[in-house]
Backbone:
C-alpha cells in the first residue's frame, strides 16, 4: 500500500497527516505550549540538600528548582533482580551521603512542574524508543507485563541475542510483541546512539544544561510512522526540513532519503482536503458514498458506531442493500478509528443481516481493514444481539479530546433542555422561593428564547403564578446566557 506523509509546521503547532491511496488515514497534532518536560534529561546542579525531608533541590535551568527524593536516586540492583524504576523496598542510604551542594548530577524529569511545585526528578535514566525502553545504567532484560506470559521467555531470549555483550538494560514494549529482529536491532542501535550523545553532552556542557529532549512529533514521524510503503515525507518549512534531515541522516538514514521540502503555492494540507477531513472527524455523522451513514458516539468508557442505510436502495433487493452498506461501513469504520485515534472498547452495530455468508464476508472485510492499523486491535465475531465488540490500544489522546472541549451550554451531554422545560423550571423555583422569602418583586434573568416564551406562549402561566404568590414578576433578557442558565433575583 502506497503511503505519503504530509507535515504542516507552524511555530505554535505541528500537524502530520498519513495519506494512503489519496485518502487521509491518520492525523497527529502537537502544540508547542502543550509539550511537557517529562522524559527530558538535564545536567543538574544540586542547589540545596534537605536531610529532614530526605530530598534535594536541583537547578536544571528552569524558573523553579526541581525536586529529587532519596527514593528516586538510582542504585544498581543485585544480579538477576529487576530495575527499580521509582521506589524500592531496600533500605535507603541517606540523601546527604549521596549528593552535596554544588554537585553536577544527571537527572531525568518524571513529573512536570505544577503550580508552585517544581519538576519531580530521578537519577535513573530511561530512554524510550519505538519498540523498546533503554535503561543504560542497568543490565536487566525485561518484557512488558501486558504481553502474555507464555510468550515472554521466547521474546526475552530473542532480545538477549540482539543485545549481545554490549550491555545496558532493555524492556520490550507492548507494541514490540510482533516486531521482527531487524526492527528490534534498529531500535537498539538508535537508543544506544542517543545515550552516547547524552553522555558526550554531559561532559561537554555546563551544569543546568538540557542534555536530551524527548522526541518532538517531527522526529517521531521518522522513528514511528515511516514504513516500507512510505513513498515521500513532505514538509512545508525550510528550517524544520533542515533540522529533520540532520536528525534523519544521523539516526534513520533510510527514512531521511524520503524527505522532501514542499514548495507549492497551495497550503500542503489542501492537497488532500485534510482540513475538511479534520472537520468531519470531529462530527458524529460520517456519510458513506452509497448514501448510508455512520453515527460515532465517543464516551468515557467506550465508543459506539451505528451503521444506517440512509438513502441507499440496492439494485436487486433489501438484503443486497444491507450487505453492500455494511461492506462499505466496514472500510469506513476502520479508517475512522485511525483518523479519530479512538481507543479502548468499541461496539459496532452493523445493520442486521439475515444471511450467514453475508455476516462472514462483512466480518472478514472489517478484520482485513483493521490489520492495516499500526495500533494493536482485537475484534470478536457477531454477538447474539448482532453487535461486533473490539478493542483498540490507547496510544494517545483522541482527536476530539485534543482539539475540543465540553460545550459550556450542555456540559458535554450533547443536548440542552428546551426553552419550555427551562421556563417551567423557573416557575417552580419562584414558587419554592416564595415559601421561604418575602421580597418586593421577583426578576427572571434568562436567555432570549426563554424570555420570549414568557412574553408570548407562557405569559398566562407567568401571570397566574404572580397572582398566586401576590408579587410582581419582571423579565430581563441576557444574551450571554446559555439556554439552561437563569437567575431569579429577589428585589
Residues:
Amino acid at each position: 500500500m502506497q503511503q505519503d506523509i504530509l507535515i504542516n509546521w507552524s511555530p505554535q503547532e505541528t500537524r502530520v497527516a498519513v495519506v494512503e491511496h489519496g485518502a487521509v488515514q491518520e492525523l497527529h497534532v502537537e502544540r508547542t505550549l502543550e509539550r511537557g518536560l517529562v522524559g527530558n534529561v538535564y545536567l543538574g546542579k544540586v542547589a540545596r540538600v534537605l536531610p529532614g525531608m530526605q530530598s534535594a533541590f536541583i537547578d536544571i535551568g528552569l524558573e523553579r528548582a526541581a525536586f529529587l527524593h532519596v527514593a528516586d536516586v538510582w542504585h544498581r540492583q543485585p544480579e538477576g533482580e529487576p530495575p527499580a524504576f521509582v521506589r524500592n523496598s531496600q533500605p535507603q542510604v541517606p540523601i546527604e551521603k549521596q549528593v552535596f551542594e554544588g554537585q553536577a548530577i544527571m537527572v531525568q524529569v518524571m513529573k512536570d512542574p505544577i503550580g508552585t511545585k517544581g519538576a519531580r526528578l530521578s537519577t535513573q535514566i530511561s530512554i524510550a524508543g519505538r519498540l523498546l525502553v533503554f535503561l543504560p545504567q542497568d543490565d536487566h532484560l525485561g518484557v512488558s507485563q501486558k504481553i502474555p506470559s507464555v510468550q515472554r521467555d521466547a521474546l526475552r531470549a530473542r532480545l538477549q541475542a540482539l543485545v549481545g555483550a554490549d550491555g545496558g538494560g532493555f524492556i520490550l514494549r507492548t507494541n514490540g510483541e510482533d516486531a521482527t529482529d531487524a526492527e528490534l536491532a534498529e531500535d537498539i542501535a538508535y537508543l544506544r546512539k542517543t545515550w552516547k550523545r547524552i553522555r558526550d553532552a554531559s561532559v561537554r556542557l555546563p551544569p543546568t544544561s538540557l542534555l536530551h529532549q524527548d522526541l518532538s512529533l517531527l522526529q517521531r514521524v521518522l522513528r514511528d510512522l515511516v514504513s516500507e510503503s512510505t513513498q515521500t515525507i513532505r514538509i512545508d518549512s525550510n528550517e524544520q526540513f533542515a533540522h529533520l534531515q540532520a536528525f534523519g541522516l544521523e539516526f534513520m538514514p533510510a527514512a531521511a532519503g524520503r524527505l522532501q521540502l514542499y514548495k507549492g503555492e497551495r497550503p500542503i494540507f489542501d492537497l488532500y482536503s485534510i482540513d475538511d477531513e479534520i472537520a468531519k472527524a470531529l462530527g458524529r455523522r460520517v456519510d458513506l458514498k452509497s448514501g448510508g451513514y455512520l453515527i460515532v458516539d465517543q464516551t468515557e468508557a467506550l465508543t459506539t458506531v451505528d451503521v444506517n442505510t440512509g438513502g441507499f436502495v440496492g439494485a436487486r433487493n433489501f438484503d443486497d442493500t444491507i450487505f453492500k452498506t455494511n461492506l462499505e461501513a466496514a472500510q469506513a469504520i476502520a479508517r475512522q478509528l485511525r483518523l479519530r485515534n479512538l481507543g479502548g472498547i468499541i461496539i459496532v452495530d452493523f445493520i442486521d443481516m439475515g444471511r450467514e455468508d453475508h455476516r462472514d464476508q462483512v466480518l472478514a472485510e472489517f478484520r482485513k481493514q483493521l490489520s492495516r492499523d499500526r495500533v494493536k486491535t482485537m475484534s470478536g465475531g457477531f454477538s447474539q444481539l448482532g453487535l461486533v465488540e473490539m478493542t483498540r490500544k490507547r496510544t494517545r489522546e483522541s482527536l476530539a479530546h485534543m482539539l475540543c472541549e465540553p460545550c459550556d451550554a450542555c456540559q458535554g451531554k450533547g443536548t440542552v433542555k428546551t426553552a419550555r422545560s427551562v421556563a417551567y423550571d423557573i416557575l417552580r423555583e419562584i414558587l419554592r422561593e416564595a415559601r421561604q422569602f418575602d421580597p418586593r418583586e421577583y426578576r427572571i434573568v434568562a436567555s432570549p428564547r426563554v424570555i420570549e416564551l414568557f412574553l408570548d406562549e407562557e405569559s398566562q402561566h407567568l401571570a397566574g403564578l404572580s397572582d398566586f404568590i401576590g408579587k410582581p414578576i419582571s423579565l430581563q433578557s441576557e444574551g450571554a446566557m446559555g439556554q439552561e442558565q437563569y437567575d431569579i433575583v429577589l428585589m
About this structure: The two ends are 71 Å apart (CA to CA). Residues 79-89 have pLDDT under 50 and may be disordered. The chain has twelve helices and 24 strands.
